[in-house]
Amino acid sequence: MKLIKRSDNVSKDENQLGISRRSFIRNSSLAAAGGMAGASLFAPGMMKKAEAKEVDPKAPVEVKRTICSHCSVGCGIYAEVQEGVWTGQEPAFDHPFNAGGHCAKGAALREHGHGERRIKYPMKLVDGKWKKLSWEQALDEVSQQVKKIREESGPDSVYWLGSAKHNNEQAYLFRKMVSLWGSNNVDHQARICHSTTVAGVANTWGYGAMTNSLNDMHNCKSILFIGSNPAEAHPVAMQHILIAKERNSCKIVVADPRRTRTAAKSDHYVSLRPGSDVAFIWGVLYHIFKNGWEDKEFIRQRVWGMDEVQTEVAKWTPAEVERVSGVPEADVYRTAKMLSENRPGCVVWCMGGTQHTTGNNNTRAYCILELALGNMGKSGGGANIFRGHDNVQGATDFGVLSDNLPGYYGLSEGAWKHWAKVWDVDYEWLKGRFDQNEYSGKKPMNNAGIPVSRWIDGVLEDKANIEQNDNIRAMFYWGHAVNSQTRGTEMRKAMEKLDMMVIVDPYPGVAAVMNNRKDNVYLLPATTQFETTGSVTATNRSVQWRDQIIEPLFESKPDHEIMYLLSQKLGLSEQLFKHIRVENNQPVIEDITREYNKGMWTIGYTGQSPERLKEHQQNWHTFHKTSLEAEGGPANGETYGLPWPCWGTPELKHPGTHILYDTSKTVAQGGGNFRARFGVERNGESLLADDSFSLGCELEDGYPEFTDKMLKQLGWWDDLTAEEQAQAEGKNWKTDLSGGIQRVAIKHGCIPFGNAKARAVVWTFPDAVPLHREPLYTPRRDLVTDYPTWNDSEAMFRLPTLYKSIQDKDVSGEYPIVLTSGRLVEYEGGGDETRSNPWLAELQQEMFVEVNPKDANDIGFKDGEMVWVEGAEKGRIHVKAMVTPRVKPGMAFIPFHFGGKFQGEDLRDRYPEGCAPFVSGEAANTATTYGYDPVTQMQETKVTLCKISKA
Questions:
Q1: CA distance linking residue 132 with residue 82, whole number of Å
Q2: What letter does residue 580 receive in the DSSP assignment?
Q3: Which helix or strand (DSSP H or E) is residue 359 part of?
């Protein structure tokens, strides 16, 4: 998506120096200046190590293997290094995921290894000016301030905002560090992208992750994309989708309020009203049930509660579906028929489905559709959830969350005791690190912390209304783009109120310039993932190893080294690194991997040793590009990346699980069934599977999760070694550190987590059966009476949360246009990194709003003119109009990758010298509004209201 350019190259004013693609290529060639990408062309300033290094073009080329650091497809890259300089790159044609494919971001990846717009050394904002500090001074000052805040207000007044850009080892270490600090006020980007997926999917059938893979989509006969636009958000994934279309005549259905580039490839496009996903899905199921197209035997054997869903679906007649969703009966019927006649099929969703106050209802509805069609646990079927950042899956798995510990163990006493044992720390000492008071009868150690979506309220809310001792007073933004969060105007107020801000990142980001502060903001330069090593988890649960490509640039340090140095200042290093070696101030990455291998039994991150992961990395060419199974070679028979669950210890050599819940394979070969996570009965009915079990299972029916008692009852206890028996006594499959319970269960063909039915009814959620509820800001006041939101809550994730009181205020007269947001192919996330890349900056130079021609004509502006977009809570953005029929009348779309301007004010002069990104623009989320999912506190970015006026 590209507007008319202002010039043929990126703007070259003194604050925004850019270069043309031709100049970039000319000046970055080895013959001209070596591999530092034309550094002499960039703005002067903090160029301490930025001069182009002379590289002999005849110097030996060392080729290293890495993984793209943008989206979660996990594309493989060959990086060419000469004399320590990253001089070239090639997409890996033998890599199982991308097979030589690259999107624009991947193709421009090498620039991050030169990064002239990066933070060069530690800095502090003093009297509105950036002052250089040494690492020692910066960490001294930061640690002294947080210790003082802890003493005055308790450990929860420091917020630790982690990153989906950390590798697995860094993410695990980050959550462990915050745990030893004594707080659950920790989170990362997953909260605001797929938290409603994790909650909704995990509470349906056991695990909250993609069930199949991009490669397995080759086998799909139909695909429903709802709230997903992979042509722009996951371009390389699109090649797998088109393979399915070419080889399998796969039918593609796209349901989206906006006619996207993915819709252009569809066999059937459905334009639904933003926020009406449940109504649409129930409309599809109405026709499936009416025509008897559901898989009755699959439902009998493997699904609980579908009868309650059918009762709800029966209310959604074609007329009501059209009234609520705007989709005519013919389009809904065609969708149902197409999906039913072309099985197996999968459903794909992204943030278009998750970022709603009703996000958990949406994701569960998608799952129920797949269950009704019998598409689960099958090649070519499944719920294929495309994750965003390169390691948002891994960072979620490793517990960088306010409501979980690594492995989704939760925050119960038993969960903390499990990890205390893994960490070899005294549980009572660990418990004593937390605030010992109770708030609303809850202890902070066992109460979910404030999520990233709500840290603003953690600062601004009256502390008497918060379930902790005091407000948040200090923020660590450790690899996070704040402009990806809603309510930008209130965010600025929260930043002004904080005692201290600490930004740890390769780039300064929007947080460094939008805060309106004069003092006490710290910038600590972290490396990119190309200046370190470690593992990263792709969207399909495969774990991939990265080589270190180059040494850290400038004075930057890898995140795990910064954690070590900070933990020393905080007095935590002895416990944090008790069994992790530290060499030259860097914790040994492989030791961190081995430590989490000892504790991540719940989701099977125990079998992926560093040695096995490196073996897969060095043998990309041996893995089949559809089945992902190695054909010969050292990893013969294993699934690429050992996707979790990879059961047992590394010695068990489990091959990983390509397709979750697949009963056609033995558990030892990666098979399984739905998880027995919700008990064994409900209202007198069994929740266990009926007549369904994985291949070779000795228990030919449903069964509960494995414990030491169950092994004894089955007569399998003596299959454990004496050492395993000693460790397994009183434990279960999740807490037995020997792995013996898992080993013996698998030996008998059983999956350790039991064999149950998926549940279509989640009795622990606000809506047990997913319901349509109108967005908080809706122009359809006629629907509010029939489909109201929830009542306000006194406490969700420690904070008061509003619903009805907002929806009751009708602002649709003043703000008549529905505003939604989404991605562009050229940029990622908040855009700090990608807008600092000249290759990408050239492609998309301006923030814009898409407006239908009718609305533009009615309001009185033309394509290319500047307009004001004002959200329903008065936040305003000054952007260029793109007049297009891509959006329907009454709707506008804005991309969320921009920052550096705030309500018309240019903030570029607030960046440290030489660090401003090439492209800046208004942040979409300055105009977005309040609204949170009640299960996860996911923010609402896909439906709000606005008004647009000519500037």
A1: 31
A2: S
A3: helix 359-372
3-state secondary structure at position 307: helix
Coil, strand or helix at 602: coil
Spatial separation of the C-alpha atoms in residues 710 and 692, rounded to whole Å: 20
Distance of CA 300 to CAs 60, 371, 659, 849, Å?
Answer: 64, 11, 21, 48
Residue 4: Cβ within 10 Å count = 10
In angstroms, rounded to a whole number, what is the distance separating the alpha carbons of residues 36 and 17? Answer: 17
Distance CA(729)–CA(738), nearest Å, equals: 11
pLDDT tens, residue by residue, 249-280: 999 999 999 999 999 999 999 999 999 999 99
Q: pLDDT tens across 103-146, in order?
A: 999 999 998 888 889 999 999 999 999 999 999 999 999 999 99
d(CA 506, CA 119): 6
* Cα 883 to Cα 854: distance, rounded to the nearest angstrom: 9
DSSP assignments along 463-486, one per residue: GGGSSSSS---EEEEES--GGGSS
Is the pTM here over 0.70, yes or no?
A: yes
| Separation of alpha carbons 814 and 799, rounded Å | 30
- Helix ranges, 18-111 (H): 21-28, 104-107
Between CA 590 and CA 603 the distance in angstroms is: 20
Confidence grade of residue 53 (pLDDT, cut at 50, 70, 90): low
Q: Which residues of 655-677 are buried (b: 16+ CB within 10 A; e: fewer)?
A: bbbbbbbbbebbbbbbbbbbbbb
CA atoms in the 13 A half-sphere facing the CB of 904: 8
Task: Provide the H-helix boundaries in 790-933.
Answer: 804-807, 838-841, 853-859
Q: Is the pLDDT of residue 46 over 60?
A: no
Residue 458 Cα distances to 59, 450, 697, angstroms: 55, 7, 50
* Single-letter amino acid code for the residue at 700: E
Q: Which two tokens stand for residue 230?
A: 């992979």
φ, ψ of residue 160 to 5 degrees: the values are -115, 100
**In 3D, which of 645, 663, 662 has the Cα closest to residue 654?**
645
User: Model confidence over 338-362: pLDDT tens digits?
Assistant: 999 999 999 999 999 999 999 999 9
